[in-house]
Amino acid sequence: MHVPMVPPGSVRADGSGAAESTDRVVICNPVSGSEDHLEQVHGLAADGGWKLRVTEAEGDAREYAREAAESGTELVAAAGGDGTVNEVVDGFVDSGVEDWPTLLIVPAGTGNNTASNLGIESIGEAFSLAESGRRRRLDLGRANDRAFLNSCIGGLTAEASLETDSESKRRFGVLAYVLKTIETATNYDGAPLRVTLENADVATSVVWEGDVALAFIGNCRRFGRRQAQAHAEDGLLEVTLVENASMPSMVGATALDHLFDLDADGIVRHRVPRVTIESLHDEPITYSLDGEVLAAEELDLETLPGAISVVVGDDYESNPDAEGAGL
Ligand SMILES: Nc1ncnc2c1ncn2[C@@H]1O[C@H](COP(=O)(O)OP(=O)(O)OP(=O)(O)O)[C@@H](O)[C@H]1O
Q1: Is pLDDT at 255 greater than 80 in this prediction?
Q2: Which of 26, 54, 58, 86 to mutate to test the pocket of ligand 1 (most atoms within 8 A of CB)?
Q3: Domains of the chain and any CATH numbers
Q4: What was the ipTM of the complex prediction?
């Protein structure tokens, strides 16, 4: 394992020992991705006058983010992968303060799906965007008492996400989980679920029951190259349910085409502000919230419209259906 040159805990990135500024805090997970980014993050943080906090264990990023929000920090960078971003957002929620810091995502993880969806491709680019980048207010997802920025994936894919190797995650992003799922699906019975899709107008709400192999709930996740993407600023969740019965047709090279075919049999899609997923066999379903595991028999999901200010890259397009917004 790479041995960090920077001690864990809280230091001024320029090493001066001067009074710590609360304007900008970068929270760095030294063991995300290829574990070789800490020195670069340290250097860029020193140049930009950031306070650097290096995590020592799971949960530290959440705590540091809560402290930063409580002390009125203007900008908080999450340097790590999707899991680190997820912890930082949970920390903002924990703080209970009204005005959260703006979030900057510094892609230093394995998949970096959230950063890539926001048009941020490298560590250096992220730090320069802190100076000049646009800031947008994005919806935040809530799943029971946890937050998610990007996506919540339930069923077999969540379990497969734990087994998916780093190289596939780098190459395919979230699709790597889908491919892994399809690979292992032959032994899977699916989960009997009741899914309540709630619209603001209750009369148009839908209750759906069936055996589900995969449930994708996207906030700003691009699941694929086409329409199966979520709009991060529309106050809606993009819900895609893949019925178990349709899994045999999802084999080989055509699997992903089938998944992203809007009219495919056995694929249910809705855009709603709120959705509840109940397990009908008294066993918890495993979910992956931005890559972090959550098990629940009943999951209550909603969007908090425009809840979080986020720095975005030049190529960020809020509407994934807009021309030129494809991957
Ligand atoms: N110092 C640390 N030692 C061990 N684990 C840590 C430490 N700091 C954070 N973690 C944990 O590391 C886990 C993985 O981090 P993260 O998701 O950011 O990286 P990744 O898995 O490489 O990237 P991605 O999720 O984008 O594929 C998180 O669950 C986080 O809580």
Answers
A1: no
A2: 58
A3: 9-132 (3.40.50.10330), 151-305 (2.60.200.40)
A4: 0.96
